[in-house]
């Protein structure tokens, strides 16, 4: 049997096209029930039990559940629990869920694939007795609801045919749509809301906690605290006529009452302030905003402000005292301001955090505090607060009604005890959206056997470099070795090679392994563990360029003269055998030990000498030598607990490896862009807007340095000259602050930008890509495929030439790269907190920034930074000069201090390092070691050469005239 679907569509030329499609219907589709006496099932096709036990007190008979689409979309956390079994998922529901939310669709497929859950997918859209045509004028949603009711009714009658059992399974339709339930009951179908069903389930404690809270319509909110959001129609009309603007909301980490939205046409982000201005937007939401007239523009608040109220109830506090909302004449710090008028798309996810139990005995409503400071607290309902109060838990957001100060959500699952290392690492991975599940069987099936060796026929296809003295230089403990180097004299010239692990030999396009690597996009490095992009067999074994083992590689080989000028470049697939896998320190010792003249040491010395010339040429061209406070932990090999922390030591060999990796990346970028002008994967670093430098330049000027940031070359020259001989760390500090003025480097497809936009500002090179780390970056895997295609060493598959697919790939790469960086920093913070538990240090510190109520300070010894809060009754903040004044002491950026460093664990959610001033000594502010504790304290107090000036040496800052913008 078949039916036809006819619809009209318009072509690009404006012609109307009539399309008729035949839709075939069958009568032999199986129902999947072991209680059925009609369908010719095989044993493995019987998914639904013959006698499904009822666990719901509302129904004292055996039954199957049929779900509508909204139940799946909103109650997926309930469905993932083992309580619900013998559930029928209709094709109509599957297709709707797939269209509306791919993440929930994947979770639903996993449930269906679990044989223990007895979830059966029935293709009702192709069964002659369950398919329904859409009526004229009928909405698609109403047609789908009708199709679901039709299928539920068919199941009820189908199971009763020829069924001689006393009690064959009945059908219960679960729907939260009141109208749909009413229509179902009129048609003789038993229907129930999810809430009523779950609240009457027996034997599954905590299941009701996972119920999603229904969204309260904007127009129905009583006692509204927030303005109503505009409807989608109003938003689209406002954006079209230019009255509204669309952008992604980014909440402030420092002030819970501030955020910003970047929109087209404005150089600066649009500042949003206060509860009403933010109007229930949550970090990551795509919002519609209205921009205020210019006379209402303000500057961002310079207060560090956290939402510390225990449970203020549903009211909004007075914000004038919490925000720096004074209007100012236009100046460089002024930002356009606006307010959120509607939500275009929510970007909510599940959030980690802790429960703050209500102080009222027996209460079921509690506040949840997310680990991510940019996310507001969430109201959830649970009867397990006594148990959950000591756990890290996962919570999903459901809605944010106008009459609630906080969004509403529900408990998803517990992650483990607060403070447990595994639970805390799980929080880091979940909070930064790092895929970290075990590799699936489908992925593992793509791997070669453990004892795989290079086949002879593969060696014959490649350039055999096993006789060349190749070695790798990496950090200590590195097992995923991506790159190796060689250098040798050939006549009056040098041959220099960079050899990169040939991951693409094992990771073939469109395989399950390739799809998984593309989704993960990068290896994530935590302090005590690594989340691999590809399975360990590849990352630490078959692809890793280990010493003394033959490996497949992709080589970039240059011919150079004495001055490191590249005379020729060639690329080829190769086979190598590394002579040594060295650490940076081992390689440095080999270079510095004059008595060593073996092949490895000679190669390293040549590489080091050429690298210094390459680096100098880059710096002469305007490359920026920036810095960041990186630290390294010594970790116990058994417990994985941090033992000590120190700033990373940079050796010449670090720079040596970096220079040749940069050169290889540039050489490959030039080649792939020439061969694939529309779809080459490249990496660009946009020049920072002048506004980014404003505070930085003001601070440098106070130290007597006028930095020229007009170009990267002039900026680099200025940084080189900004030296204070008696303060050797000053220049490094300046470069750390300069790094924070930069924009993020990003991946892009060559066809999406003009040639001028390819430029990499930090490296001062016209074109750049990533080629040298394919074990840990998927971008490099793609670039390997592009280069292999350009050389004819491998086939070019269609996806490499698809510009739209390339852009989507770049978006994911940029997102995953950023999240991996943040996860790494969070891991450092976690281990720092563990290290400083029950410990205190008194160390030299430097002021990085001056805020209205705090100094941001850096401890050079550890590379740690954080806020040093200043009491407002003791300090006067001079906003124009960006300084803090207490009596005759002035504190400003770049000042050297001594601070006491301890860990504050009073807030279990946000343990934090506490920085307390020691010197300069200010009574009532600075830490004073009590005389009684002198003998107990074994901490050496370091008294730095302070640069803090007495107030009498600094004249009262003159008020500058503020020009109108």
Automatic annotation (TrEMBL):
Cofactor section: Mg(2+)
Keywords, ordered alphabetically: Cytoplasm, Endonuclease, Exonuclease, Exosome, Hydrolase, Nuclease, Nucleus, RNA-binding, rRNA processing
Gene3D superfamilies, alphabetized: 2.40.50.690, 2.40.50.700, 5'-nuclease, Nucleic acid-binding proteins
GO cellular component: cytoplasmic exosome (RNase complex); nuclear exosome (RNase complex); nucleolus
GO BP annotations listed: CUT catabolic process; nuclear mRNA surveillance of mRNA 3'-end processing; rRNA catabolic process; rRNA processing
MF (Gene Ontology): 3'-5'-RNA exonuclease activity; endonuclease activity; RNA binding
Database matches in PROSITE patterns: RIBONUCLEASE_II
Domain PIN: 63-182
Domain of life: Eukaryota
InterPro entries: Dis3_CSD2, NA-bd_OB-fold, PIN-like_dom_sf, PIN_dom, RNase_II/R, RNase_II/R_CS, RNR_Ribonuclease, Rrp44_CSD1
Any matching Pfam family: OB_Dis3
Cell location: Cytoplasm; Nucleus, Nucleolus
Ranges of residues in domain RNB: 462-793
PANTHER family listed in its UniProt record: EXOSOME COMPLEX EXONUCLEASE RRP44 (PTHR23355:SF35), RIBONUCLEASE (PTHR23355)
UniProt record similarity statement: Belongs to the RNR ribonuclease family.
Protein's UniProt name: Protein DIS3 homolog
């Amino acid at each position: 049997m078949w039916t036809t679907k006819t619809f009209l569509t318009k072509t690009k030329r404006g012609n109307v096209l009539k399309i008729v499609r035949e839709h075939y219907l069958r009568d032999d589709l199986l129902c999947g029930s072991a209680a059925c006496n009609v369908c010719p099932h095989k044993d493995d096709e019987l998914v639904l039990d013959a006698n499904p036990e009822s666990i719901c007190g509302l129904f004292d008979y055996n039954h199957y559940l049929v779900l509508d689409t909204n139940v799946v979309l909103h109650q997926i956390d309930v469905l993932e629990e083992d309580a619900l079994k013998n559930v029928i998922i209709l094709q109509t529901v599957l297709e709707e869920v797939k269209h509306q939310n791919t993440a929930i669709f994947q979770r639903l497929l996993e449930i269906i694939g679990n044989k223990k859950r007895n979830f059966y997918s029935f293709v009702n859209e192709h069964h002659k007795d369950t398919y329904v045509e859409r009526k004229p004028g009928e909405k698609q949603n109403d047609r789908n609801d009708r199709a679901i009711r039709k299928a539920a009714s068919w199941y009820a009658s189908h199971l009763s045919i020829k069924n001689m059992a006393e009690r064959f399974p009945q059908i219960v339709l679960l729907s939260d749509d009141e109208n749909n339930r009413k229509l179902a009951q009129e048609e003789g179908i038993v229907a129930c809301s999810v809430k009523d069903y779950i609240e009457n389930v027996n034997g599954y404690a905590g299941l009701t906690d996972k119920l999603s809270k229904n969204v309260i319509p904007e127009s129905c909110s009583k006692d509204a605290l927030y303005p109503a959001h505009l409807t989608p129609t109003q938003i689209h009309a406002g954006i079209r006529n230019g009255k509204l603007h669309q952008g992604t909301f980014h909440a402030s980490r420092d002030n819970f009452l501030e955020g910003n939205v970047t929109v087209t046409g404005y150089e600066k982000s649009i500042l949003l302030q206060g509860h009403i201005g933010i109007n229930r937007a949550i970090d990551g939401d795509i919002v519609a905003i209205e921009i205020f007239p210019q006379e209402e523009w303000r500057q961002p608040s310079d207060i560090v402000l956290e939402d510390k109220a225990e449970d203020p109830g549903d009211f909004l506090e007075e914000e004038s005292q919490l925000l720096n909302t004074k209007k100012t004449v236009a100046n460089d710090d002024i930002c356009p301001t606006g307010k959120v008028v509607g939500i275009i798309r929510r970007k909510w996810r599940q959030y980690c955090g802790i429960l703050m139990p209500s102080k009222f005995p027996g209460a079921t409503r509690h506040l949840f505090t997310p680990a991510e400071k940019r996310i507001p607290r969430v109201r959830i309902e649970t009867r397990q607060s006594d148990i959950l109060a000591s756990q890290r838990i996962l919570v999903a957001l459901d809605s944010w009604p106008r009459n609630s100060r906080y969004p509403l959500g529900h408990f998803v699952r517990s992650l483990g005890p607060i403070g447990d290392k595994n639970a805390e690492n799980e929080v880091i991975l979940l909070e930064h959206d790092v895929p970290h599940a075990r590799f699936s069987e489908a992925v593992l099936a793509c791997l070669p056997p453990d004892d795989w060796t290079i086949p002879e026929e593969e060696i014959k296809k490649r350039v055999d470099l096993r006789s060349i003295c190749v070695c790798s230089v990496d950090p200590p403990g590195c097992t995923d070795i991506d790159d190796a180097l060689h250098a040798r004299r050939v006549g009056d010239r040098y041959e220099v090679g960079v050899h990169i692990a040939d991951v693409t030999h094992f990771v073939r396009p469109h395989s399950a392994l390739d799809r998984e690597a593309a989704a993960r996009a990068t290896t994530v490095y935590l302090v005590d563990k690594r989340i691999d992009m590809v399975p360990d067999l590849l990352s630490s074994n078959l692809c890793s360029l280990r010493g003394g083992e033959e490996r497949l590689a992709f080589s970039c080989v240059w011919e150079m003269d004495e001055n490191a000028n590249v005379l020729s470049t060639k690329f080829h697939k190769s086979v190598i055998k590394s002579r040594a896998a060295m650490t940076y320190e081992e390689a440095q010792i080999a270079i510095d030990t004059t008595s060593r003249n073996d092949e490895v040491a000679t190669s390293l010395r040549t590489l080091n000498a050429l690298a210094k010339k390459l680096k100098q040429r880059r710096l002469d061209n305007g490359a920026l030598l920036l810095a960041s406070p990186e630290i390294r932990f010594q970790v116990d090999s058994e417990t994985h607990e941090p033992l000590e922390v120190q700033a990373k030591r940079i050796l010449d060999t670090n720079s040596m490896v970096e220079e040749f990796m940069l050169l290889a990346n540039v050489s490959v970028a030039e080649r792939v862009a020439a061969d694939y002008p529309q779809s080459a994967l490249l990496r660009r670093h946009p020049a920072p807007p002048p506004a980014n430098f404003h505070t930085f330049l003001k601070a440098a000027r106070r130290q007597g340095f006028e930095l020229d940031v007009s170009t990267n070359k002039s900026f680099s020259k200025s940084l080189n000259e900004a030296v204070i001989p008696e303060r050797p760390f000053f220049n490094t500090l300046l470069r750390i602050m300069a790094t924070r003025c930069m924009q993020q480097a990003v991946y892009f497809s060559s066809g999406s930008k003009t040639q001028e936009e390819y430029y990499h500002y930090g490296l001062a090179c016209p074109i750049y890509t990533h080629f040298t780390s394919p074990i840990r970056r998927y971008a490099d895997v793609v670039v390997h495929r592009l280069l292999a295609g350009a050389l004819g060493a491998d086939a070019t598959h269609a996806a490499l030439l698809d510009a739209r697919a390339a852009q989507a790939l770049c978006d994911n790469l940029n997102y995953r790269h950023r999240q991996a960086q943040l996860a790494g920093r969070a891991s450092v913070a976690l281990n720092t907190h563990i290290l400083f538990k029950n410990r205190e240090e008194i160390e030299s510190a430097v002021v990085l920034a001056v805020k209205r109520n705090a100094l941001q300070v850096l401890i050079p010894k550890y590379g740690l930074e954080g806020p040093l809060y200043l009491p407002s009754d003791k300090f006067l903040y001079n906003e124009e000069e960006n300084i803090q004044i207490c009596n005759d002491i002035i504190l400003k950026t770049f000042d050297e201090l001594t601070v006491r460093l301890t860990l504050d664990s009073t807030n279990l959610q946000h343990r934090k390092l506490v920085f307390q001033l020691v010197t300069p000594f200010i009574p009532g502010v600075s830490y004073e070691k009590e005389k009684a504790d002198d003998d107990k304290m074994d901490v050496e107090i370091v008294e730095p050469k302070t640069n803090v000036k007495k107030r009498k040496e600094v004249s009262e800052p003159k008020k500058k005239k503020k020009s109108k913008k």
